[in-house]
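ESCALATION

Customer reports they have been waiting on this structure for their group meeting. Please prioritize. Original submission:
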Amino acid sequence: MELMEEPEWLAILRQDVLIETRDSQILGDTTLGVVGRSAIWSLCKEFRYNSLRAMSQTVRIYERLFAGALWHGLYDDIDIALDSMKSQVLLILSCCFMLAVKSLQSAAPIRPSHIQKYLNSLGWQVTVQDVILTERNIFEIIDCHVPIYSSPEMAELLAVKVVLLPSALPELRQILRLAEFRRKELEFEVRWVSAYHRVHYGHPRVRTAHLAAGCVGLVVARSAPTEYRQAVERLARLFRVSCLYLEILTQVINIWTGTVIPKPIWLRDRQPTVSKRLRRAQYHAS
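Update from on-call: job pushed to the front of the queue and completed.
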């Protein structure tokens, strides 16, 4: 019996997980918080790219920039890198956004002149040449490696893998948007609950592909509770992680996005216990 060949996109996702794992080993648990993500959200809306694809890609390129800068020895640690780039943070974010838009093969790419006019309108005196040079430097520091798939694309590919109905995709995108926005707090809780249950998943941060899988698992839990267990097992096999880790991730996403999972699916043996902090977050979200 011949083994089925894995799809190309799955190999790309696994490679992406490896690259993010390397970056997390460099950055530790440092990640962009709500304030930084809000700035990127506003930037995307300013240029009428109000899509989660552009937003999530910009965040990933920005974080990969810091990992690359430390990897190449440009700075001794993350704090020095942050202080050094603080004076140019909006220019750097804008150039990361420009790269993200290009990676999405948009029919209407953002030009350096657009970024220059936008920054000048905010009181930042930069030239078109400054924008071009900054974008080129960022591209070189990240070793010309822009993520191929954004988190919404990952989620949609995984949704097909677990045979999620097309009618559930809008809900999936909404949950993923909320999870991306609150990702720093979400990752902290995943680390805490995983440590409590002694679940080792090999890195201090949640991989983007794992986040997408957790959101898919949550949508399956809500739309087809009887198929939840099978979906989690399938997703866990794809990324070679434990089912319990994905269950923890799904439950944390559930609480931080303010959604509701039908009660019966949690009435299982060895279910993850929700921490007090998670219960408080759920209370304040309600």
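Sent to customer with the following note: Residues 261-274 have pLDDT under 50 and may be disordered.
Escalation resolved.
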